From TrEMBL:
Residues 416-437 are annotated as: Disordered. This is ABC transporter domain-containing protein. Keywords: ATP-binding, Membrane, Nucleotide-binding, Signal, Transmembrane, Transmembrane helix, Transport. It comes from Brassica carinata. The lineage of its organism: Eukaryota, Viridiplantae, Streptophyta, Embryophyta, Tracheophyta. The chain crosses the membrane at residues 294-316, 860-877, 889-908, 965-985, 1061-1086. It holds the Pfam family ABC_tran. Belongs to the ABC transporter superfamily. ABCG family. Eye pigment precursor importer (TC 3.A.1.204) subfamily.
Length: 1089
């Protein structure tokens, strides 16, 4: 009986609990509680708290939804922001406390969706209401101002009125039972309801400071005339710049909105933190600190980076130096073996010749009796040396190659080893007996020097030009023959378009392959103009007459792959060695199908023939860093064109600045080129007599571009002697003839004046003489254009404006002609397939990598400056929570843009002349541009790391290191493209000036208030605007909870959108791509050929 009674009592208690829960479900939404004693029950209070929190969550969700609707620019993920601001599920103590304080009346005191919307409207309309005061409403106005309208207080709704917290239209009449706001809530002035404080806020009850009459920790005062009114709770949640009372203070963290805990040692707590963060390693954090003490880490990072930079600065050349030393050893060994082999061959040949002479003598002595001893002697000489190092090239002729030699050989064993085993020769793709040795670098060098020694020995044998030597030269099948090209011209006239002045006039002649033609004359005679006209490089001129190639009227540009042009200036890369300069041109301009062994042979032959063996591994040198001598540099300049095995070679004053010995060495090398069928034309100034006799043909020009003589050098004295002009004894003939044409020699023992020499040559050759030269033999008639003279006389009375307009038109025509010339497309008739664009890109990449390694000291200086800039800006400018670090990022954009632009200018400003020369010779412009840009990508990736290693750890922003790195990489990529365009379109001085001014000016424009639509458009065109926006957005995303309104206010003031981070990154990349395209087009248009 007792057991049943206990069960009945237990079931009765459970029944009462179930009924209470059902009652709470029915009435908690309306805040109607009659029996307040149940809220002190420990079993009931948690259930009530959960019910209130569910209702409160719906209310704050409406607040968050309104914020997301009104402020999409500052809310990226509404649900995530709500969780970080109003998810109190981990601790609901402030709700339980408020329920007990209000005796269950909390539901009637929480703001509805309409009241929260009203509060947010006041925040977003600060442009019309700068103070942020709430507008009058039904509960708080001039006629009704209850105690709940005061800051920190709230009122309740009439018990008979139902409250719908999700009502977003109507205000409930909330004027009853006014009391102070609960802890964890804030009650704005002008509203009689409570809004929960977000996470990261600290909203305790205020206490009156009798000294200042302020309700601390807030800044409002008690209303006058109400002695019974006391300090309430928090009164405002707003932008930190206008009111920051509710923010959890720096040095402490607030796990709930009613509890504040000081930061422990080893941790740091920023303003508005909900938890403490541990300090990085090697940093220190004192108790109650808001930032890490990173001075020790910064010093260590600076010391480490500086040490690395110093190592790079001092050891940058060791890699290339060690590699060059190893190659030099292999080359020296190959030279020694080749010379030893050649000496043995010479000795064996001499022994055979001696045996033959003895045999002939014995035969004559014994009346023609013949013995077999001679044959045995030959066998004895040849015995034991069958394994001698002799390369066995197979020669084939291909129209696609200018070289007739295409070796397919197997390197044999060393002769000194005495091996009797012969190597296998692979034919038809099948392997023969024996082992096959791969063609290593040392084997290729051995082959090349064997060939060179053979050529030297052959030249020595044929120097006497005996009958047998001539036969040997004629029957020698290994002599390379280039594509033979004869260049002839008839009535060639070159006239400037600007003033119609003649540079050349009625020049007729021909230049044949296998001969060296020298073009001579006084200054202003048109020597270089003749070379430019024949090479197709005359721009801004009218060219008349005929230029024939092998008797056909074809464009010279169709053969540019087999035409070499040596400019007057020594355009050679100073930070490359002699061998690297020549080897690069050989790789890019020789046929793509030519083997590496043949290319090495070409390069070694050029270096050997020009006498550059001693300096082959020496840097050419620049103005700042001395390298080889001027004469050696001149020979390297010629070697660049010789390395591509041209069929026609133009040289503009190659002997200027050379001594007699160097000039003879150069002419000897050119003579060897002529023996292979190269058509060589060169401009020379007053050569020595021995050098003059080396030339085959001579073109002598008078002032005005008129021909005085064109023919063999050996006949020039005979011709002038026939005119009565005899060279005195001990006078160099070319010097004397030039003095005659200059008018310096006046005591000619001839009835022919120097002014009549061009006409006499025309009559001598049977050419037609122009009409003005027939009627006027004066200097004016010969040296000027009569049309120009008449035009000048007629225009003598022109006004200054007309003359200026004429000059402008002439300059415009000249630029137009250059652009047309650069885009001139012709059919390739050279039948030479050079390496593809991607293969040339590989070659350019390797060359630029070597140059950058040799410029590592300069690169290290750039990195050191960036490091110091990051340290200085990071230590001077602290991250500001109010602006999300915008000031520091602004200075970062200026500093990084300026330093990276200045360094990027070097990629193109210093190499313009080299690019123009290489592009004119047929090298790929796209390959050159892409290679430089690819190498600069290394700086694009590394420089942000160097800068952020200081700036980020000193400022310690809330955004991640990776976010800042991505933005900075895109910024560097963008400004590098702008620097390319500046370097190509402007002169170096102007480009540097613009590189300094642009970052400053554009950043100032981008950070100005956008008061007008025009100002907004201009700011959108400035790259600093997008970089700063990306920095600020990346940092603002890490501010949440109590920072939501501050984030929205800062982004609204700046005009930024938190959803446009990806757009900012894409625009920076797009600007970098577009400016690179503009730079590339400018590089092609503005190049000089």
């Amino acid at each position: 009986m007792s057991v049943n009674r206990r069960d009945w009592l237990r079931h009765g208690s459970n029944l009462r609990l179930v009924l209470l829960v059902l009652w709470l479900v029915c009435y908690v939404g309306y805040g109607q509680f009659e029996d307040t004693n149940d809220f002190n029950n420990p079993a009931v209070l948690p259930l009530v708290t959960q019910m209130v929190y569910r209702s409160l969550s719906n209310s704050t969700a409406a607040l968050n939804q309104e914020l997301a609707t009104r402020a999409k620019f500052c809310v990226k993920d509404p649900d995530a922001d709500w969780n970080k601001a109003f998810n109190f599920s981990t601790n609901l103590d402030f709700l339980s406390s408020c329920i007990q304080k209000t005796k269950g009346d909390i539901g009637r005191r929480i703001c509805t969706a309409a009241e929260m919307k009203f509060y947010l409207n006041a925040f977003f309309s600060k442009s019309n209401n700068p103070a942020g005061y709430l507008q009058p409403n039904g509960n708080c106005n001039l006629t009704s101002w209850v105690s709940g309208c005061e800051p920190g207080w709230a009122c309740s709704v009439d018990p008979n009125e139902q409250v719908d917290l999700q009502n977003s239209k109507d205000f409930p009449e909330r004027t009853r039972n006014c009391m102070s706001c609960c802890e964890g809530f804030f009650c704005p002035r002008g509203l009689t309801c409570m809004i929960p404080c977000p996470l990261g806020a600290h909203c305790p009850l205020a206490t009156l400071n009798k000294t200042t009459s302020l309700c601390q920790p807030y800044t409002y005062q008690l209303p006058p005339g109400r002695p019974n009114h006391t300090c309430g709770g928090a009164n405002v949640w707003a932008d930190i710049r206008s009111s920051g009372e509710v923010f959890c203070s720096a040095g402490s963290y607030c796990p709930t909105n009613t509890r504040k805990v000081p930061c422990d040692s080893g941790h740091y707590c920023r303003m508005g933190s909900t938890s403490e963060k541990p300090c990085f390693k090697l940093t220190s954090c004192n108790p109650n600190t808001a930032n890490q003490n990173m001075h020790a880490l910064g010093v260590m990072v600076i010391c480490g980076v500086v040490t690395i930079l110093l190592i790079i600065y001092n050891c940058s050349d060791q890699i290339l130096t060690t590699r060059e030393r190893r190659q030099a050893k292999s080359r020296e060994a190959a030279v020694k073996k080749a010379k030893a082999n050649q000496r043995w061959k010479v000795a064996r040949t001499a022994a055979k010749k001696h045996v033959t002479e003895i045999r002939e003598q014995i035969t004559r002595t014994f009346s023609g009796k013949r013995t077999n001893n001679d044959g045995e002697t030959h066998k004895m000489l040849a015995r034991g040396y069958s394994s001698e190092v002799e390369d066995l090239p197979k020669y084939s002729s291909s129209p696609a190659s200018s070289s007739a030699v295409q070796p397919s050989f197997e390197i044999e064993d060393d002769a000194a080893a005495g091996s009797l085993e012969r190597p296998s020769v692979v034919t038809g793709g099948k392997r023969g007996k024996g082992h096959r040795i791969k063609k290593s670098q040392s084997q290729i060098l051995r082959y090349a020097y064997n060939q060179i020694e053979k050529e030297k020995a052959r030249a020595q044998e044929n120097r006497d030009l005996t009958f047998s030597g001539i036969v040997n030269m004629a029957t020698y099948s290994e002599m390379k023959k280039r594509t033979l090209m004869e260049l002839s011209f008839k009535d060639l006239t070159l006239t400037l378009k600007s003033n119609r002045k003649h540079l050349l006039r009625c020049v007729t002649g021909s230049m044949k392959p296998g001969r060296i033609t020298a073009v001579m004359g006084p200054s202003g005679a048109g020597k270089t103009s003749l070379l430019s006209a024949l090479a197709g490089k005359a721009v801004g001129c009218n060219l008349s007459g005929m230029i024939l190639i092998n008797g056909k009227e074809l464009s010279i540009h169709s053969y540019k792959k087999i035409i070499g042009f040596v400019p007057q200036d020594d355009i050679v890369h100073g930070n490359l060695t002699v061998e690297e300069n020549i080897w690069f041109h050989a790789k890019c301009r020789l046929p793509a199908g030519q083997s590496k062994a043949d290319k090495v042979l070409v390069v070694e032959r050029v270096i050997d023939s020009l006498g550059l063996q001693a300096v082959r591994s020496s840097l050419v040198g620049t103005v700042e860093k001395r390298g080889i001598s001027g004469g050696q540099r001149k020979r390297v300049n010629v070697g660049l064109e010789m390395a591509m095995e041209p069929s026609i070679l133009f040289l503009d004053e190659p002997t200027s600045g050379l001594d007699s010995a160097s000039s003879q060495l150069l002419l000897k090398a050119l003579k060897h080129e002529a023996l292979e069928g190269v058509n060589i034309c060169m401009v020379v100034h007053q050569p020595s007599y021995s050098l003059f006799q080396t030339f085959n043909d001579l073109v002598l020009l008078a002032k005005g571009g008129l021909t005085v003589y064109h023919g063999p050098v050996k006949d020039v004295e005979t011709y002038f002697s026939g005119l009565g002009i005899i060279v005195p004894e001990r006078i160099n003939p070319p010097d004397y003839y030039i003095d005659v044409l200059e008018g310096i020699v006046t005591n000619l023992n001839s009835d022919v004046s120097y002014k009549e020499l061009p006409q006499r040559w025309m009559l001598h050759k049977g050419y037609s003489v122009p009409l003005d030269m027939r009627n006027n033999n004066s200097a004016a008639g010969l040296e000027t254009n009569p049309d120009v003279r008449d035009s000048n006389n007629g225009n003598a009375e022109q006004t200054f404006v007309r003359e200026l307009w004429g000059d402008v038109k002439s300059n415009f025509r000249l630029r137009r002609d250059k652009i047309r010339h650069n885009f001139l497309k012709t059919r390739d008739l050279s039948y030479r397939t050079t390496p593809s664009m991607w293969l040339q890109y590989k070659y350019f990449l390797g060359r630029i990598a070597k140059q950058r390694m040799r410029e590592a000291k300069l690169q290290a200086t750039d990195y050191l400056i960036l490091l110091l800039a990051g340290a200085c800006l990071g230590s001077l400018i602290k991250a500001s929570d109010e602006s999300f670090g915008a000031p520091g990022y602004t200075y970062t954009i200026i500093a990084v843009s300026l330093l990276c632009k200045i360094s990027a200018l070097r990629s193109f400003s210093l190499d313009k002349l080299h690019y123009w020369r290489e592009s004119a010779s047929g090298m790929s412009s796209l390959a050159s541009f892409l290679a430089k840009d690819t190498m600069d990508c290394f700086n694009t990736l590394v420089k942000p790391l160097v800068y952020l290693s200081m700036f980020y750890f000193f400022t310690n922003p809330r955004s991640t290191f990776f976010d800042n790195y991505i933005v900075l990489v895109c910024l560097v990529y963008c400004v590098t493209g702008i620097a390319y365009a500046l370097a190509i379109f402007l002169q170096p001085g102007s480009a540097q000036l613009f590189s300094v001014l642009l970052p400053v000016v554009l950043t100032l424009v981008a950070t100005q208030p956008k008061d007008s639509e025009a100002m907004k458009i201009i700011a959108d065109l400035c790259y600093p605007k997008w970089a700063l926006q990306a920095f600020v957005i990346g940092n603002a995303q890490k501010y949440y909870g109590v920072w939501m309104i501050t984030r929205c206010g800062s982004l609204m003031k700046s005009g930024y959108d938190i959803n446009e981070w990806n757009l900012c990154i894409m625009i920076l990349i797009l600007i970098g791509v577009v400016t690179r395209m503009i730079a590339f087009v400018g590089m092609i248009i503005l190049q000089k050929r």
